[in-house]
Amino acid sequence: MSVAVGDHARRLCSSLALAWFECGYTLSIDDCGRLYSMWDDTVLDRLAVCGTKQTCEELQSCEQAAYRDL
Amino acid sequence: MRAGRLPGSVAAAALAVAVSAVAGGCGDEGARAMPMWQPVPGCEAIDHTPCDVRVTSCQTRLFALAGCLRGEAPGDLPPVTVISEADYAAELTAEAAMETPSAYLATWDWAWSTLKLAQPGGLSTQTMISEWVKFVWGVYRSGGSKDILIIDHGAAFDAQSASPVLVHEMIHALEDREVDLDQLDAAFATNTDSRLAVRSIYEGEARLHETRYRASALGLDPAKVDWTRRFDNAVALDEQYLIKDPSPLTAASRAFPYEWGAHYVYNRWLAGAMSSVHGLYVSPPVTTRVLMASAGMDVDLDPEPAPERPALPSPPAGWTTVGSDVLGAWAVFLTLAKSAPATATSTLETLALAWRTDQIGIFEGPSSARALVWRMDLGDAASASQIAALLQGGLQVRVVLTGTEVTLAASGDGASLDWAFLPSP
Question: In this predicted model, what pLDDT tens digit does every residue of B379-416 receive, in sequence order?
């Protein structure tokens, strides 16, 4: 199965992959794009705010919350 | 060295994707290839694209990059071999079989498990090897062969994961050519505390450059990275990982030198570029306290001479001192974290940073009796008092406080330990 990386996911990943990197993790822009392209805009909009969180705990919580109630 | 990790929630999302992608459909915005070209600052002329580390042209290119990261011409490429995890474990097991095991390993194992620094059996060669090979992704062998092994763990092994590992190991090859790492260890790494501290310089430097490279390899814009935040958070992440490990001090050898070391070396590199980093090899820190102060309190301590060890008590007739060591501030922190899990980590860090010196001795007596005495000086009486109380409450040991000195003792068979608390001769 392969998925094309959409613009929405690509925009999201430039900030989200950086946020994870600064929290001590490694997530490439490419992997991030492939991963998040599989989600629809509702989830991606929720995830978009995660990259701006001040702390890594907030980032983690934000990421988990994005998948709730789907 | 250990490799990078995917955040847990992202990994969970990846698993969820396998299910929901079918229902939600695949993206239909169309693929538009956008090259991610974010070269390593200062090394823009060298292609940083991850590559197949088995191929010589890839190795040559990444070695040039490693040299550039250190600001030097790389010289001859060291031999590089990709080896499976199972083959690497077999190699280590065969090497261990050739060595004479420590006569007092069982007593050390008992002592460390009494202090909650390792679980029983945690110091056995087989346990150490099996734990190590799970985590190690690359090795630079500084002995006779001076070569690099890249460990293939199977599914997770690809150009993206292996290239930063190879750069890390190549940094070690360059460090070794500059300072002779075996010589450095022989001169400065003489006990558990100084071994962790000295390794923190060469592993820290390698992790620093690996991380600088890794940002570009991941497609991130290095100019946008808050590097201080990255190195701070890598320490915080590994601190949590180590506290949870049932053998935190043996696990520390897989984490402390890398993240605490990278934090320390990064600050030096920031302040004075590579010339400051080179200086650390001339006079490396020999206590983990220096590394902890940098990472935990943002206090950039200069390396300081090894403190004089507090004397150990003389055991009674029929007993023999069979080993001694210096465990250091990091081990004090881990023992406190295991003894007082309800106390805030930051409080325990502050207490452990009061460490000035310590010495642990192990003793064997009649009928296989054994004992340990760990004597530490905390620099101030208030910290000593708090540490004594926390250790007394969390370990099966006797603790005596004398001013700034805490003495902790335990015996394997309930034998009297009064001798352990007598003033040093």
Answer: 999 999 999 999 999 999 999 999 999 999 999 988 88
**A42 pairs with which residues across the strands?**
none
pTM of the model: 0.91
Q: How many CB pairs (< 8 A) connect A and B?
A: 110
Tell me how close the Cα of B298 comes to any Cα of chain A, in angstroms: 17
Please enumerate, as own/partner, the contacts of B212-216 that have beta carbons within 8 Å and a separation of 24 or more.
Answer: B212/B40, B212/B41, B212/B69, B213/B40, B213/B48, B213/B65, B213/B69, B213/B163, B213/B164, B213/B167, B214/A26, B214/B4, B214/B164, B215/A21, B215/B38, B215/B40, B216/B38, B216/B39, B216/B40, B216/B48
pLDDT digits (tens, 9 = 90+) for B342-360: 999 999 999 999 999 999 9
Q: Among A29, A63, A70, select the one facing B9 at the smallest CB separation.
A: A63
Q: For B120-132, how does the pLDDT look when each residue is reduced to its tens digit (9 = 90+)?
A: 999 999 999 999 9
Query: Among partner residues A9, A17, A38, which is closest to B220 by beta-carbon distance?
Result: A17
ipTM of the complex: 0.90
**Chain B, 182-221: which have a CB under 8 Å from a chain A CB?**
214-215, 217-221
Q: What residue ranges do the domains of chain A occupy?
A: 7-66
What's the confidence (pLDDT) of residue B159?
Answer: 94
Put simply, whether B24 touches A (Cβ < 8 Å) is yes
Q: Does B28 touch chain A (CB under 8 A)?
A: yes
Is residue A65 a contact partner of residue B254, using CB atoms and an 8 Å limit? Answer: no
The residue whose two tokens read 């822009």 is: A29
Residues in chain A closer than 8 A to B160 (CB atoms) = 28, 31
Q: Tell whether the model's pLDDT for residue A29 goes beyond 60.
A: yes
- The answer to whether residues A13 and A30 touch, using CB atoms and an 8 Å cutoff, is no
Determine the residue among B233, B235, B259, B345 to mutate to test chain A binding: the one whose Cβ has the most chain A Cβ atoms within 10 Å: B233
What is the distance between the alpha carbons of residues B174 and B71, in angstroms, rounded to a whole number?
Answer: 11
Task: Report yes or no: B308 and B424 within 8 Å, Cβ to Cβ.
Answer: no
Instruction: Tell whether A22 lies on the interface with B, counting CB pairs under 8 A.
Output: yes
In chain B, residues 245-284 whose CB comes closer than 8 Å to chain A: 259
First-to-last alpha carbon distance for chain B, in angstroms, is 43
